[in-house]
Each structure stands twice: as C-alpha cells, then as structure tokens.
Amino acid sequence: MRRVSCIAHPIAHIRAFALFPTVIRAALFDDIPALLALENSSFDGDRLSRRSFRYLLSKGQALALADVQDGRLRGYIMLLFRRKVSLARVYSIATHSDFKGQGVAAGLLLAAEQSALAHNSVAVRLEIRKDNHASLHLFQSRGYRIFGEYEDYYDDGMDAFRLQKSLTQYLRPEIAPVTTASTSPS
Hints:
The structure is a single chain. This protein is of the alpha+beta class. The protein has a domain at 4-123: Aminopeptidase (3-Layer(aba) Sandwich), CATH 3.40.630.30. The chain contains 5 helices and 9 strands; from the N terminus they run E-H-E-H-H-E-E-E-H-E-H-E-E-E. The strands form 2 sheets. It has a 7-stranded mixed β-sheet with strand order 2-3-4-5-6-8-7. The chain has a two-stranded antiparallel sheet with strand order 1-9. Strand 5, helix 4 (104-118) and strand 6 (123-129) form a beta-alpha-beta unit. Mean pLDDT is 82; it is low at 1-18 and 175-180.
C-alpha cells in the first residue's frame, strides 16, 4: 500500500464571520445527551440511539466531530472507517435548527474530510434521502457526485442517493529515500 500524507484545508475562512468562538472537536461521552437531543430533533426516523453513540464513540471505527459554540452543540458529523479500506463514510450529520444557514454543516464537512485524509482515505461516501434537497445541495456544492441509488433505503421507504467525493487531489506521495548499492572492486 502506498503511504501518503495530506495537505490540510484551512477552516479559518469558514469561521471568520462568527461572532463567538467556535470549536470543532472530537465528540466526548459528555456530549451524548446533546447529540441525542440534536439527533431526535433533526430526524423523524433512522436515528442513532444512546447505545449507538456510546459504541461509536468508544469501540467503533468511527470519529464524531462536534461543532461547539459558547458551550452549545451547534452540529455534529459522524465518520465511519473500515480497516484495509481507504474510504470514509459520513454516517450522520446534523445541524441544530437555531444554526442552520450559518455554515455549521459546511465546516463540519470540511473537518471530516481533513480527518478522512488523516486516516489515509482517498474518498468519502454517504447516502442522502432523495427528498433532502438542502443536504443534496450542500454536498454537491462541495464536490460530491451521485454515483448510485438505493431503493427503499430508509425506515419510511424513501430512496437514497449515493454520493462520493474523491480526496486524491489533496494527497501527496511521500518521497522515499533512494538508496544505491555500492559496488566495490573484488
């Protein structure tokens, strides 16, 4: 497997307009009540449970990033990784209704892509409800392309689009030292 290093995208330009300091950080066990409240207010079905959050935050091949401002959870994104697979998957993303339209999801997505690169992922995939036009617009405006569909994917029977973004443009092969065999006269 070829080893790669990543070139990070700056997040600073997304947060430049914020009036209060915002931090995107790894979610903690202490965040679970706020994550559950956000999950329940954001989705009618297919919600993550307390047990799922606890598992993903502790034992799962996952990374949850939380956008926190002044001690308040503004949004989160959950990334899944698989061993020996160079793809990351956005398992869930949600923004608190008080902060929609303020760049929270865009900032979380950028941070998730940086994390995917740090995990040597070459692409990010996800599924989106076909009727979730706002999310579809967000992801497509950031370089995600539809590559397939799942029929009857969600609890209510809604179909899903499958999206993917390649991260290869941000990868740089590491320069391996070149060694030469010395030849000595016999």
